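README: folding subset

This subset contains proteins for which both the sequence and a predicted structure token string are available. Records are stored as plain text. Below is the entry for Signal recognition particle 9 kDa protein (86 residues), shown exactly as it appears on disk.
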Amino acid sequence: MPLYQTWEEFARAAEKLYLTDPMKVRVVLKYRHCDGNLCMKVTDDAVCLQYKTDQAQDVKKIEKFHGQLMRLMVSKESRSVSMETD
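--- output ---
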């Protein structure tokens, strides 16, 4: 399970994983209050991508990216639309 050190690498890899097979991808957000860590995991059961952070600005990026993924998951044209990650 690769743990990405930079947000940009993780976001690109997660988007690519989602766009390959949207019906198999799952997203898990996990917050540990005792450590102050937020972990985002994106998996399709064959590949598992993980990003952990304790920085507030990264939490905002995760929240924005998670919202973009959710919008793609409910849209009908999810395969033709590419996400824009800042």
